[in-house]
Amino acid sequence: MESGMAYEKDDLMINLKATELRLGLPGTEEETNEDHHQDQSSLSSSALKNRKRHSPEITREEKSDHDGEETAPPAKAQIVGWPPIRSYRKNSLQQMKKSEAAEISGMFVKVSMDGAPYLRKIDLRVYKNYPELLKALENMFKFTVGEYSEREGYKGSDYVPTYEDKDGDWMLVGDVPWDMFMSSCKRLRIMRESEARGLGWGV
Amino acid sequence: MSEDDDRSPPSDAAATGITASGSGGSTSVELFPAPYPDQVLENVLENVLCFLTSRRDRSAASLVCKSWYRAEALTRSELFIGNCYAVSPRRTTARFTRVRSVSIKGKPRFADFNLMPHNWGAHFAPWVVAMAKAYPWLEKIYLKRMSVTDEDLVLIAESFPNFKELVLVCCDGFGTTGLAVVANKCRQLRVLDLIESEVMDEDVDWIACFPGSHTCLESLIFDCVDCLVNFEALERLVVRSPSLKKLRLNRYVSIGQLYRLMIRAPQLTHLGTGSFSTSDGMIQGEQEADYASAFAACKSLTCLSGFRETLPELLPAIYPVCANLTSLNFSYANINAEQLKPVICHCHKLQTFWALDSICDEGLQAVAATCKELRELRVFPVDAREDIEGPVSEVGLQAISEGCRKLQSILYFCQRMTNAVVIAMSKNCPDLVVFRLCIMGRHRPDHLTGQPMDEGFGAIVMNCKKLTRLAVSGLLTDRAFSYIGQYGKLVRTLSVAFAGDSDNGLKYMLEGCPKLQKLEIRDSPFGDVALHSGLHHYYNMRFLWMSSCKLTHQGCREVARALPRLVVEVMTRNEVDEEDIVDDEIEILYMYRSLEGPRDDVPKIVQIL
């Protein structure tokens, strides 16, 4: 079977043809088909035939979509074992992406404390609940948080943990369920109790 | 029989080693106290042959005559078996009786990509059982793509009192239980290297099982053992292993723990970090200085790897060692060009560099600007899909070819490529021995000209006169293969996927490449006629793999009939319905020469013709 590709003879393409580096003997020309610079659809007819016969290799999903069609497979088809990357490496990269996705998705929030010269940043995903978060903040900034009650907020401490939510409002840490807090918290501020009192919080 | 290349299989008579000469023949001459002249000659020969180390030389020596055959067999201490099914343990141990080191390779490479049934074979068990009896002084075992069980490891630990080195590459079937026994019982153990193997977490603290006293450990590589390690035990182990030069940790070892190990082992030459990140993504100022000083203290460090979960802000810690590095493996570090540049600009001596394509063409340009001694480059994709933009392209490859003229080996994954750049590389890097280009989009042509990639690969085989290994990709016609057949006279390993137009493609390769040993082909339109064109050559090859091509049962059966010493395995990869099999077509052909005939451990899915 002859090669299904041919080279463009049109002079308009001469810039390519003239600079083309060939290894064949001078005078050997072949026919090309014009479409070949479109990636996925550039297939010789035998390659198309192959696609059909290779159906066991293609996942079942794709097979049921394209049985009997003489077209290029969808670009997103997952062919087994292609590209040839060892599963060990693939799995390692998956794990890596998962842990890095945590960083990229903005779970890192700034934490400021009234009176402190610079801010800190923490990854909210590291904590499973409010007690863990508050303990970490206490350690980081060397203060204690006081006792939380729904009615009165935090009692018995010089500082009150607050956060800015998605709507831009300043909220008291601990009022909403942890998951809701995690998804709505944009930044944290450890507010001085005196200021908090001014806003009607605390005792 | 060793799996040496370029040899046709010897006749059976040679295997029995019976001499026709008038002397007592065998060298068990305890019954004949007076040395025969032949015996003296054999003693001399043995003493001389001890100096032959190359297995090709030994193979040649063994063919001279029967007495050389015997002497060579007695003096061969390193055994290499390229295909575990080409020869049996029994035959091997019968011929070679004084072996200290064994290397065995099992599954063909395409098994790594899930193209082979999981239980296909390559079991180490029959080998270790035979060797336990025959080679009590065995010191070293190197296995690649074999199935190894915990029981096998226990047998190693119990049978070889002088055992020194265990290296398992791409193996599976064993777990931490087996490792614990090896660690504990092999008191002379110097090397325990587990590389890209699948190790089962059997919840055993194997690190703690090393003997409590001084160890002889020189190399401990366990980055693929994906289980938590007992860090205190590891630290104590490092402290009592003064000869330790190579240490590669897994991702459960934090950077703080790495620091503690490094200050205990400044003599390290090869280091694989665990996780190169902090758990909260933050660095305390003094920490950064500490890490750098720990690296600076390792004055002999030449080879750095690991970097799972890399926090780029921590990379400055390695600056002190960059100038001495000959090998840097960033292939798990998802860093960009800007993060790479400050590191790579120091690495003037670098010879081996592995990276992810996250470094982009720009990162490769930085490599090309500094690493003039580069011999080996591998660029892996972060995102191994076919239809995406792709951060590296012909631009990066062009830069490398211009900057790294001494390049010998390249593996390059990309989404687009041009013939011009591949041709340029063939001219700029004449020392290339290994050229593996993987254009991830199947059937992708030259993205500038729209032409097949024939000319590029053609130039590689034509201009790189030392080329022995080639992997092709992209849109390729039979013409590419005619170039390979015409110019690829030294090519031993060839990897083909989604390429070619007709049987001619395969014919060109089989008829044109006299040194071809390992040919692996997938999804290419080569059929029975092409298969038959290689009959003259198959006995000289280690194996031929063809999957999803155009072969039929009938065609393969004819080959099996024509070549009785070839084992022709035909299989389906998984449970495929009867309706899916069209026209007697087969899915996978894997055939290899063998002295043993069909193996007896074949799973149902495999048929031997």
TrEMBL record, chain A:
GO BP, sorted A to Z: auxin-activated signaling pathway; regulation of DNA-templated transcription
Bias-annotated ranges (Basic and acidic residues): 55-66
GO cellular component, one term: nucleus
Region ranges (Disordered): 24-80
Protein location: Nucleus
Annotated ranges, domain PB1: 106-195
InterPro entries hit by this protein: AUX/IAA_dom, AUX_IAA, PB1-like
Keyword annotations of the record: Auxin signaling pathway, Nucleus, Repressor, Transcription, Transcription regulation
Domain of life, per lineage: Eukaryota
Subunit-structure text: Homodimers and heterodimers.
Family that this chain belongs to: Belongs to the Aux/IAA family.
Main function: Aux/IAA proteins are short-lived transcriptional factors that function as repressors of early auxin response genes at low auxin concentrations. Repression is thought to result from the interaction with auxin response factors (ARFs), proteins that bind to the auxin-responsive promoter element (AuxRE). Formation of heterodimers with ARF proteins may alter their ability to modulate early auxin response genes expression.
Name recorded for this polypeptide: Auxin-responsive protein
Organism: Morus notabilis
Native organism taxonomy: Eukaryota, Viridiplantae, Streptophyta, Embryophyta, Tracheophyta
UniProtKB/TrEMBL annotation, chain B:
Gene3D superfamilies: 1.20.1280.50, Ribonuclease Inhibitor
Keyword Nucleus in record: yes
Matching SMART domains: LRR_CC (SM00367)
The Transport inhibitor response domain, residue ranges: 98-143
Region (Disordered): 1-22
GO cellular component, one term: SCF ubiquitin ligase complex
COI1 F-box domain sequence ranges: 38-77
Biological-process GO terms, alphabetical: auxin-activated signaling pathway; SCF-dependent proteasomal ubiquitin-dependent protein catabolic process
Chloroplast recorded as keyword: no
Pathway(s) per entry: Protein modification; protein ubiquitination
InterPro entries hit by this protein: COI1_F-box, F-box-like_dom_sf, Leu-rich_rpt_Cys-con_subtyp, LRR_dom_sf, Transp_inhibit
Skewed-composition ranges (Low complexity): 10-21
Domain of life: Eukaryota
Database matches in PANTHER family: F-BOX/TPR REPEAT PROTEIN POF3, TRANSPORT INHIBITOR RESPONSE 1-LIKE PROTEIN
Quaternary structure, from the entry: Part of a SCF (SKP1-cullin-F-box) protein ligase complex. May interact with auxin and auxin-responsive proteins.
Protein name: Transport inhibitor response 1-like protein
Organism lineage string: Eukaryota, Viridiplantae, Streptophyta, Embryophyta, Tracheophyta
